[in-house]
Task: structure prediction
Amino acid sequence: MDPAALETEARSAIAAAGSAVELESARVRYLGRNAELPRALRQVRDRETGQALNALRARLERAFGERRAELEGAELELKLTADVVDVTLPGRPAPRGRLHLITQIRREIEDIFLGLGYQVVDGREVETAYYNFTALNMPSWHPARSPLASLYLDSETLLRTETSPSQIRVMEATGPPVYMVSLGRVYRRDTPDATHVPIFHQVEGLAVDRGVTLADLKGTLLHLMRALFGEERQVRFRTHYFPFTEPSIEPDVSCFLCDGGGCSVCKHSGWIEMGGAGMVDPELYGFVGYDPEEVSGFAFGLGLERIAMLRHGLPDLRELWENDLRLLRQF
Ligand code: PHE
Result:
């Protein structure tokens, strides 16, 4: 092997390599395990030749390294100019998400009651007939117990038809005083139309303490209605019947569109129906171990879809389930 000739040859190969890949194959050719120089180094017997060949190898390695840096720099430069990004171009707009209308109303009502010192309690959507009916004082023949009216999973278990079972669960779990709201889905065997959907939402309210009266119920609902529909609203009660309240009432709110003058939203009566309410029937205290001589309370249940419909003039409740973003984006 002629070291000087080898060096000249290798250096011209290094200079001729036009890319990192070409350079690497030249490196393998001259410095790889089976190349002439490394083989000669392995066979070297005398010190002087060894030193000379090692120095040659070091020179070539340095030359390869320098050329590699050069080529990589050039390749990077090329890539940068090819992939150039114009940072002055306007960006593509990222669509903003938003909360569903019912979720917005739910959170708004939770906030209003948190402000009054109430607890927000989760209920269960799958309930037993005991909590959904029996402990709410509903007789065995009550029509809501029929599988034609309610959605049963088995003979004792059903999708709750109202949020009222949360009243029983909360009173069972804690002693008085109780101030709570519970919001969530309820299920009924209804055929969908513009004002009925088989899955809808209620807010349940319960306040049990010493000396709670019907006037407290009225004040609380008045506060809620004014927060939802404006400071001018009035609330009135009509007598009604629920198995779990005595007396039972249906609260109306004065129409926020016509201010009581009469319009199509309030069907020209000046008043809008809001749901059900009443004083907790003392019978219920027997189911949860409260002393009806010590405490009294009120409860109410209102539909969130109804609030949404009234507030936004929504013509058809089924639209809330269609997930049409054009509709949902309006709220
Ligand atoms: N649970 C009743 C309903 O769904 C509403 C209600 C709740 C009435 C609490 C009185 C007290 O119709």
Observations:
- The domain at 101-328 is CATH 3.30.930.10 (BirA Bifunctional Protein; domain 2).
- Residues 162, 164, 242, 245, 275-278, 299-301 surround phenylalanine (CB under 6 Å).
- The longest strand covers residues 199-209.
- The chain has two domains: 3-82, 101-328.
